Amino acid sequence: MCASALIASCCPKGDSQQPSSNISPSEALALSRSLGSEGGDLLERGVLQTAALWRESDGDYVDFESFVKDNYAATPKERRELFEHLSHSFELINGAYNQLALDLQKPSMLASMEPLESDYIFSSFSPSAHLDDDLFANKIAFLTTLNFPHFTLEEKDSLGREWSREQWAYARMGDMFTERVSAEVNQQRALAESRAENYIASYNIMMGSLLSEDGRRLFPDDLCLLSHWNLRDELKACYALGEQGLEKQEMIFSVMQRIISQEIPAAVINSSEYDWMPVSNRCFKDGKEVKLEREKDERYSRILEVFHAYQQQDKCSSSGVNAIGRNFEEGMEVSDSKIESLFKTLLSSPQVAQVASLIESRLGRPLRPFDIWYDGFKARTAISESSLTDMTRSRYPDSDAYKKDMPRMFRALGFSASYADFLASKIEVENARGSGHAWGTAARGYNSFLRTRIGEGGMDYKGYNIAVHEMGHNVEQTIDMYDIDYYTLAGVPNTAFTETLAFIFQKRDLQLLGLDAPLDSDNMTLDIFWGMYEIMGVSLVDMYTWRWLYAHPQASSAELREAVMGIAAEVWDEYYAPVLGQPGCTLLAVYSHMVNSPMYLPNYPYGHIVEYQIESYLKGLENPRLIAPEVLRIWKCGRLTPDRWMNEAVGSDVSVQPILDELTQILAKY
Ligand SMILES: [Zn+2]
Fold it and tell me: Is residue 514 part of a domain?
């Protein structure tokens, strides 16, 4: 990173909400020169980044200067000793805080415990909430940034090719303190996010109040669907209903478009007081037509409020990133432009039109825009779920029985007997109150937890299927914590990579029951591809919306509405209208994530890409059922960037080519 990038990143003076640095970049530069920096080296980088995070309350320039002089590790030996000491200390702190949170949340998470009201308070209590503040106050954060400065994603991806594992470990330590957000800014952000969450969580459509243009009710009276998830799932379920299903799908499609355009009458949301014809947008009370007010851009006001809160946080970064950079470069560790080109490669591939015409011939009608949710490629299993449940219930009457069987399951995947025992010794199995999850360890010396539902009669097939998924997470958590060379490299590049191993295990759940089930099929690949095609367009709309927001920071909610609709139509016209028709369609803007989890959507298709790429690599193994040696080798890479990790794993960047190649072969059969 050049000095100018750091200078630009300093908190602007005079902002009332965010205290700024009292050390100027030129003072920091001069100081690093006086200590022997020749420019562009680690010393300069460390001093500049530390200065950007320093506040009046930390001391004046004289204090800063003596802090730097006293604490800069000048030799490689000093630096290594400091690294080891910091690394050990962070592991102690993280491990203990994680265990404390885990123990406090047990009563609300385990089926075997009866939580008290106060347990729910403890379960939402975060013991480490003030840790960062404390580490800045006692200057451990500055000791870290001074000696282990931050590298940008671009630097990690390019310089990282030549880095030793030790250099990677040092660079990862440099990611720990890159911003200093005041409690007030954090609070405002949390408030904006929770208002968006509440808006989405209570946005229901009363399907029994919907009327067709000739006044018929197509849905049951008591059907209440949350937008957009339940609306979409209902639309998917209609594929099984033929002609009658199509009429319902068209109606749901109209409702979605009215939500996006905010022409939906406010009084029909969460209420069955009025009847509503979504196609012509007319409303009725006791059979008489009434005029109702539209929703007035509440959807877009919620997005704007979150944007404004994120803008405040932007001012607290030592590297000058905004919310887009925090999400992609720092969070997913893939730049938004790289994600964009990855998605575009698939969206503009010739395979899209070929799969579309396959769907058209199966449906026996011209495609409609909502056919982005076509779900007729689902593979059917040969064995019924109830007979699988009989098997899992008798095998796993309780969590202990599952725990005892884990070494056998690991051996069946190709782990050596001793490694299988080791893995099993690091994983505790518990009966979950809600659905399943895997809670990993944050330090060596602790175990990770596999939680799934086990009913009175034992573990049913659904619970077992989830248990095997979570077990994949636990294996990842154990390998890249216990088998890793540096603590700061423990983990995976981003959530896609932990989900990948979980899905690899989950797909082999029948194999682990000793059944001979296929690992993949043409239908599976077609289903994954069509799902990717849908969610990539949705993700682009989300990404382009945030670029637009930063280009138009003063926008009103009405302007944002127009912009989002325009963006959705543009993406539609380029990648969807050619196969699904209806130019100008705004459907891609319906996802609720756009409101309550900005920029999260790209994680889904990115995860599918990573998973498919690793699976197709494993498929090429001599015995694709004995995956353990490769799983061990690959997941020991730890927390590199996604592209560096994938290169270590399979020898190329993250890519959509494996699924496109596979599709070419499949489509040749039709
Ligand atoms: Zn998972």
Answer: no
Decide: 306 and 196 in contact? Cβ < 8 Å: yes
Helices (H) and strands (E) in the chain — how many of each? 31, 8
| Ligand 1 centroid distance, CA of 436 (Å) | 9
Q: 138 burial class (0-12, 13-18, 19+ CB within 10 angstroms)?
A: exposed
Query: What gap in Å lies between CA 504 and CA 147, rounded to an integer?
Result: 39
Q: Is beta strand 288-290 parallel, antiparallel or unpaired with respect to 448-452?
A: unpaired
Same domain as 148, residue 58: yes
Ligand 1 centroid to 72 CA: how many Å?
42
Domain total of the chain: 4
> Is the Cβ–Cβ distance between 248 and 241 less than 8 Å?
yes
How many angstroms separate the alpha carbon of residue 474 from the centre of ligand 1?
10
Kindly state whether residues 30 and 95 are assigned to the same domain.
Answer: yes
> pTM score > 0.85 for this model?
yes
CA dist 327 to 210, 274, 324, 343, 537, Å?
Answer: 39, 41, 5, 17, 18
Strands 427-431 and 448-452: parallel
Q: Rounded to an integer, what distance in angstroms lies between the CA atom of residue 645 and that of residue 335?
A: 15
- The rounded Å distance from CA 470 to ligand 1 centre is 6
Q: Is 410 exposed, middle or buried (0-12, 13-18, 19+ CB in 10 A)?
A: buried
Helix segments in 208-297, DSSP class H: 229-237, 243-261
Q: Which of 23, 114, 31, 12 is nearest to 70 (CA)?
A: 31
For ligand 1, the distance from its centroid to the CA atom of residue 493, given in whole angstroms, is 15
Cα-to-centroid distance, 549 and ligand 1 (Å): 32
Q: Around ion ligand 1, which residues have CB less than 5 A away?
A: 502
The 3-class SS string of 543-556 reads HHHHHHHHHCCCCC
Burial code (b: 16+ CB inside 10 Å, e: under 16) for 462-481 equals bbbbbbbbbbbbbbbbbbbb
Q: How far is the CA of 506 from the centre of ligand 1 (A)?
A: 10
What is the 478 CA–ligand 1 centroid distance (Å)? 15
- Ligand 1 center to 498 CA (angstroms): 7
Tokens read off for 462: 């659904």
In this structure, is residue 509 part of a structural domain?
no
* Distance between Cα 283 and ligand 1 center (Å): 43
Domain boundary residue, one of 181, 211, 232: 181
| 187 falls within a domain | no
CA of 508 to the centre of ligand 1 (A): 15
Token duo for residue 309 = 């809160």
**Whether 234 and 97 share a structural domain:** no
Whether 427 and 473 map to the same domain: the answer is yes
Mean pLDDT by 10 residues, the chain (670 residues): 35 50 96 93 96 96 98 96 98 96 90 87 83 95 98 94 97 95 87 92 95 96 92 93 92 98 97 97 96 96 97 86 95 95 98 97 96 86 87 96 98 97 98 87 97 91 93 96 97 92 93 87 93 97 98 98 98 98 98 94 94 93 92 96 96 96 93
Q: Are 212 and 247 in contact (CB under 8 A)?
A: yes
Q: How far is the CA of 35 from the centre of ligand 1 (A)?
A: 49
